[in-house]
Design goal:
The chain is an alpha/beta fold. It is 28% helix and 24% strand. The chain has helices at residues 29-38, 53-62, 84-94, and strands spanning 3-9, 23-24, 27-28, 45-50, 68-72, 99-102.
Length: 109
């Protein structure tokens, strides 16, 4: 059974712009979360679902050869027009896995 962690990363967040890619404590929120997830042996794949070219570039360069990949999100699914229900339905349709869960890029102390 394949288990996938999906990190939704929207370019230009509405509340805190670019929060996922801002440097903090020698890393970014996105890198911090990917590194945490890479340590979980039960997770088979990590998918950064994003419309951010910077996030895609980070995954392609820094995490090439790991279980972390990306899915280029269509702009509609990154917009305020898309409801949460639509977004999660879409994640289920585009994520090739048996089980997936979403986890957001946030620091947890």
């Amino acid at each position: 059974m394949k288990i996938t962690a999906v990190l939704p990363v929207r370019k230009g967040s509405q509340r805190v712009k670019y929060r996922n890619l801002c440097t903090f404590a020698n890393t970014t929120l996105l890198e911090h979360k990917i590194q945490m997830l890479l340590k979980v042996p039960e997770i088979d794949a990590i998918v950064v679902n994003t419309n951010s070219e910077a996030a895609i570039e980070l995954v392609e360069t820094k995490y090439a050869g790991t279980k972390a990949t990306f899915h280029r999100r269509e702009e509609y699914y990154a917009s305020s027009e898309c409801s949460g229900s639509e977004f999660f339905k879409h994640l289920g349709e585009v994520t090739d896995t048996d089980i997936f869960f979403t986890i957001h890029a946030r620091f947890h102390l």
